[in-house]
Amino acid sequence: MSSPTEDRQFKRVILKLSGEALREPGSHDNISPEIVERVAKEIKKAIKSDVEIGVVCGGGNFWRGASASARGMDRATADYVGMLATVMNALALQSALEAEDVTCTVQSAIEMKNVAEPFIRRKANRQLSVGTVVIFAAGTGSPFFSTDTTAALRASEMNADAIMKATMVDGVYCSDPKKNPDAKRYDSVTFADCLSQDLKVMDSTAFTLCQDNDIPIIVFDINGEGNITKALAGDDIGTMIHKG
Ligand code: UDP
């Protein structure tokens, strides 16, 4: 399983932040201001390496549509609640970035003029190209999708070079490391290998979009000090999923 991990000098990337990553483990607070501040500081450092950064925020620290639906709620409505949850994370990140003097904006796929700009692809593209960090909120704006799919979609339409998926695990393993302590972590793996070995990287819609549009995904642990900066700057970190 060889790969071009050495060529990670990306010009434009989409950083996918899972909602859970913004919550302090064991805390009742859905958003930890301290964690969001750390994320903002790391994004600021990465900007110095001239990378254009779009951020897609998840919402799982507040709400997941599928879980609420399994408990009897109408799925589409539950998903809209989930999309609104992502906006709270986006606003928290915007505030933390502004406190670090990082130029940023929130574009929401569900219009809410008082708190965010509407998502306009051409405008987002321009903002990214002048170095503004664009935070994409409210997912795709449609129910039955995930924010991983949002990241794949925004990466495709913004011509991003890669998706950086910041999660609670440090990469992709050959089997579940919680169940198998000998599980091997891959430095890199192809899309085809992920499918043939049934490795769970993203939901199938998100994964297929990345594969079809040849967008590498870097899965890395958000919790390691400096990891976001390293990932955004193209350092060798986590697992890179690529075309091969
Ligand atoms: N969601 C949606 N459409 C989208 C993106 C998200 O309906 O395009 C809803 C869905 O209910 C999802 C929730 O928003 O469960 C939060 O997003 P996600 O679960 O992807 O967040 P993460 O797990 O990354 O924190």
- How far apart lie the N and C ends? 9 Å
Q: How many distinct folded domains? A: 1
The CATH C-level name is Alpha Beta
Q: H/E series, N to C?
A: EHEHHEEHEHEEHHEHE
Under the CATH scheme, which architecture would be assigned?
Answer: 3-Layer(aba) Sandwich
Q: Kindly state the mean pLDDT as a whole number?
A: 94
Q: What is the 3D shape?
A: globular
Estimated share of beta-strand residues: 15-25%
Supply the number of helical segments. 8
For the largest sheet, list the strands in their spatial order.
Answer: 4-3-5-2-1-6-8-9-7
User: How many strand segments?
Assistant: 9
The largest sheet, given as strand count, sense and whether it forms a barrel, is: 9 strands, mixed
Helicity level: 25-40%
Radius of gyration: 17 Å
- Give the uncertain stretches in residue-range form: none
Which small-molecule ligands are present, each listed once?
uridine-5'-diphosphate
Q: Could you say which structural class the secondary elements and strand pairing correspond to?
A: alpha/beta
Q: What is the third-level CATH name, the topology?
A: Carbamate kinase
The CATH superfamily is Acetylglutamate kinase-like
Enzyme class: transferase
Binding site for ATP: 16-19, 60, 64, 167, 173, 176
Catalytic activity: UMP + ATP = UDP + ADP
GO molecular function, one term: UMP kinase activity
